[in-house]
Design a protein that fits this description.
Elements lengths: L1 H6 L31 H14 L4 H6 L14 H5 L16 E5 L11 E6 L2 E8 L2 E5 L5 E5 L15 E9 L4 E10 L2 E2 L5 H14 L14 E4 L3 E2 L2 H8 L11 E7 L8 E9 L4 H4 L6 H4 L9 H19 L3 H9 L4 H6 L6
Parallel strand pairs: 1-12, 7-9
Antiparallel strand pairs: 2-10, 2-11, 3-4, 3-6, 4-5, 6-7, 7-8, 11-12
Length: 349
C-alpha cells in the first residue's frame, strides 16, 4: 500500500522544498508521516548566512542605469559560494524578488511576524529609472514599459534617480499593489529589516509620491501599498473572519507572513511563509469566514481525492510533453512560451 501511495507522491513542479506551486505539504499526508523540510532549521541557517553574505549591493543596484550589465566574477565569489545554499545572488533581474514557501512549521515567534494579504494578480518587479518605468516577471522578462510618478519613472522626474519595488499586478483594476521596497531615490534598503522597509515604503509613498495612486498622463498605472498587520490570532481572526474587511477591492489570493527581522533575500526563502485563507484553521487554528472555507479544493477532503488529483496531474503533464518535433522546436525558440507562462502564474511564490 505504501508503494502504491508513494507512486502518486511526486506532484511538485519544482525541486525547491515547500514551494507554493505545489500543494501544501500538510495536506499531502500520504507522502510521508513526518515532514522532511526542517523549515525551522533552514530559517536559522538563512538568517545566519544572510549576515555573512557580503557583496557589492550598491554596485548591483546602480547597474539598472546601464543598458548592458556585465556578469563578471567578483572578489567575494569564494565567500558567497559558502552560503549560496541559503542565499542566492541575483543575475540582473532574474530571481531578484523575495519569494515565499508554504508555511509548514509555524515558528515559536510567529506572533512577531508581519501579515500581508495579497490580491489575485501577477508578481512583478517594478524598476523606474532614466525617465521610464519597466515591469519584470520573476524570471527577469520585461513585460511592460510605461511612465510613472515613481523616482525616475518618467521624463517629468527623470532626474530623481531610480526605485525598485516588489509588486503584484492586478489586471482587473490596472493597479500595482506594492508589497515591499528594495530601493527608493537611489537609497537601497535591502540590508534593512522587514519592519523598517515596510515603514519606509509607507512614508515614501505618502510623502514623496503624490498622485501615484491616481491615473494621469504621467501615471497611467495606479500604485497602492499593501498594508501589513500583526500575526496574532486576534488580528488574523478580525481580518479573515466573518465581517473582516480586506484592504483591496479584488479577490484575495493568499497571505504572506514575513519574518520581522530578515533582510530582503533574493529567491525563495523560509523566512516568508504563504498560506491560502482556508488553510488558516488547519495550520494556525484561526477561524475564517465561510466564503474562504468554500474555496477549499476537493482534493483536500480525503486520501482518495489526493490520489485522484495526482493521477490527473500526471496525465496532464504527459499530454503537455507529448508534442510534435516541430511544435517542440518552436516552443524552445520562443521566449514568450513555457518560461514566461510559468512566471505569469499566481503570486504564490
Amino acid at each position: 500500500m505504501d508503494d502504491l501511495l508513494a507512486s502518486f507522491g511526486s506532484v511538485e513542479v519544482t525541486p525547491h522544498p515547500n514551494t507554493p506551486h505545489a500543494e501544501h505539504p500538510r495536506f499531502a499526508l500520504y507522502k510521508a508521516k513526518v515532514s522532511g523540510s526542517c523549515q525551522e532549521e533552514r530559517r536559522k541557517r538563512v538568517l545566519e548566512a544572510r549576515k555573512e553574505a557580503r557583496y557589492d549591493l550598491l554596485s548591483h543596484l546602480r547597474s539598472i542605469e546601464e543598458t548592458d550589465v556585465s556578469q563578471g566574477e567578483s572578489s567575494d565569489d569564494m565567500e558567497y559560494d559558502q552560503v549560496q545554499e541559503c542565499y542566492r545572488r541575483p543575475k540582473k533581474y532574474k530571481d531578484f524578488l523575495m519569494l515565499s514557501e508554504w508555511l509548514v512549521d509555524v515558528p515559536n515567534n510567529f506572533a512577531t511576524y508581519l501579515t500581508v494579504p495579497c490580491p489575485v494578480g501577477k508578481r512583478s518587479l517594478v524598476v523606474s529609472a532614466r525617465g521610464r518605468t519597466r515591469s519584470y516577471t520573476k524570471s527577469g522578462y520585461q513585460v511592460n514599459q510605461f511612465p510613472s510618478l515613481l523616482p525616475g519613472g518618467s521624463r517629468r522626474n527623470n532626474n530623481m534617480g531610480y526605485a525598485l519595488l516588489d509588486c503584484i499586478w492586478s489586471e482587473i483594476n490596472k493597479t500595482f499593489y506594492v508589497i515591499d521596497v528594495m530601493c527608493w531615490l537611489n537609497q537601497p534598503v535591502i540590508e534593512c529589516d522587514t519592519f523598517f522597509r515596510f515603514e519606509w515604503l509607507k512614508s515614501r509613498l505618502e510623502e514623496e509620491a503624490v498622485g501615484i495612486g491616481e491615473i494621469s498622463k504621467y501615471n497611467p498605472m495606479r500604485f497602492e501599498r499593501l498594508p501589513y498587520y500583526e500575526s496574532s490570532p486576534e488580528s488574523l481572526s478580525k481580518l479573515f473572519g466573518e465581517g473582516g474587511q480586506l484592504p483591496f477591492p479584488v479577490e484575495l489570493d493568499g497571505i504572506l507572513f514575513y519574518n520581522r527581522d530578515t533582510h530582503y533575500t533574493h529567491g525563495p526563502t523560509p523566512l516568508v511563509g504563504w498560506l491560502k485563507a482556508y488553510m488558516l484553521p488547519e495550520i494556525l487554528g484561526v477561524p475564517v469566514a465561510e466564503k474562504y472555507e468554500k474555496e477549499r479544493p476537493a482534493k483536500y477532503i480525503s486520501l482518495p481525492k489526493h490520489i485522484e488529483y495526482a493521477k490527473e496531474l500526471k496525465k496532464d503533464r504527459k499530454e503537455k510533453m507529448d508534442v510534435t518535433p516541430g511544435k517542440d522546436k518552436r516552443l524552445k525558440s520562443t521566449p514568450t512560451s513555457e518560461n514566461v507562462e510559468e512566471e505569469m502564474e499566481s503570486v504564490t511564490s
